[in-house]
């Protein structure tokens, strides 16, 4: 009997495969392709206190080995999210992790408080949002700002808190340690890497926002390295993501120290990717006579 279960801050997942925020909606769009019951967890698209319109178009561009996006965390706000998205997810036997975004600590806390009495299993805090009070520096790029927001959210949260780290920093291990010291229950990484594309025929930026977040296979080696560094810097669970397209990709992250993994950009090219990764990990464990996923976590 193969045990694919994993545990994140006291929350048990049937397997380590989850969705990466912003690439799977809240599961509704993908439910006709994917049996959500097969997944370890569904991580929702980022939700804010009030509706956000997102950035002007064009805001998505294909690049070698992935894509750039500058969606701007467009979402309908917490009220609609609770009434529509959470109600939908109640019908499935999978863990629900809500990605929370905001422009100020007060906005983040507002969402966290609204979710306190809901059937949400964990919160993932997107600290790559611009911090208006810090001159538009992302919380995740400033250790002091990261410490402050982590502490404040932990004071208010009823569910375990995952801090989603920005890779656009000098020392990812330091940022992971700051989160752990401030009370975070887990960290997830990596978020997208800042990139740019120029249309040489129009002699203009391809994205209206000029820059966007690079995701897809191109960032995987960077992501694996950062997950390895974070996992060796902290004792709390690490969730790995960044360019996972196959079970082999996912297993790299797990062997680097990730207790769970998230599939992101690959959902756009093949909506069945998450289930294929679950089945692939199971096949690997059978072929290699691995009885428990815990034998693989951090094995390198």
Give a description of the structure:
The structure is a single chain. This protein is of the alpha/beta class. The protein has one domain (6-54, 73-195, 217-295): Aldolase class I (TIM Barrel). It is 30% helix and 21% strand. It is built from 8 helices and 18 strands. The strands form 5 sheets. It has an 8-stranded parallel β-sheet. Strands 5-6-16-13 form a 4-stranded antiparallel β-sheet, with no helix packed on it. The protein has a two-stranded antiparallel sheet with strand order 1-2. 51% of the residues are buried. The mean pLDDT is 96.
Which helices and strands occur, and which strands form pairs?
Elements: E1 6-8, E2 11-13, E3 17-19, E4 41-43, E5 60-63, E6 66-69, H1 78-89, E7 95-100, H2 105-115, E8 122-126, E9 130-131, E10 137-138, H3 143-156, E11 161-164, H4 172-181, E12 186-189, E13 193-196, E14 198-199, E15 204-205, E16 211-215, H5 220-233, E17 238-241, H6 247-256, E18 260-263, H7 266-269, H8 273-287
Parallel strand pairs: 3-18, 4-7, 7-8, 8-11, 11-12, 12-17, 17-18
Antiparallel strand pairs: 1-2, 5-6, 6-16, 9-10, 13-16, 14-15
Helix pairs in contact: 2-3, 3-4, 4-5, 5-6, 6-8
């Amino acid at each position: 009997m193969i045990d694919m279960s994993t545990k994140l801050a006291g929350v048990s997942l049937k397997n380590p495969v989850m969705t990466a925020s912003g690439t799977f909606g809240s599961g509704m769009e993908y439910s006709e392709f994917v049996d959500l019951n097969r997944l370890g967890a569904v991580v929702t698209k980022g939700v804010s206190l009030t509706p956000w319109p997102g950035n002007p178009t064009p805001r998505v561009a294909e690049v070698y080995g992935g894509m750039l996006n500058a969606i701007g965390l467009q979402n309908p706000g917490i009220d609609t999210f609770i009434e529509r998205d959470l109600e939908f997810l109640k019908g499935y036997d999978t863990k629900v992790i809500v990605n929370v975004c905001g422009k100020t600590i007060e906005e983040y806390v507002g969402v966290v408080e609204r979710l306190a009495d809901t059937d949400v299993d964990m919160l993932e805090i997107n600290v790559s949002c611009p911090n208006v009070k810090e001159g538009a520096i992302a919380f995740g790029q400033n250790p002091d700002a990261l410490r402050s927001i982590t502490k404040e959210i932990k004071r208010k949260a009823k569910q375990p808190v995952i801090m989603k780290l920005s890779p656009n920093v000098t020392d990812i291990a330091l940022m992971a340690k700051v989160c752990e010291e401030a009370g975070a229950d887990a960290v997830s990484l990596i978020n997208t890497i800042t990139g740019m594309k120029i249309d040489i025929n129009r002699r203009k930026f391809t994205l209206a926002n000029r820059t966007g977040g690079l995701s897809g296979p191109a960032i995987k080696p960077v992501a694996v390295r950062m997950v390895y560094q974070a996992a060796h810097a902290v004792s709390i669970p690490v969730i790995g993501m960044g360019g996972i397209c196959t079970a082999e990709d996912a297993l790299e992250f797990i062997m680097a120290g990730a207790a769970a993994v998230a599939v992101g950009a690959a959902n756009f090219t093949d909506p069945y990717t998450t289930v294929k990764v679950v089945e692939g990990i199971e096949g690997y464990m059978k072929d290699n006579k691995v009885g428990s996923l815990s034998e693989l976590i951090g094995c390198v």
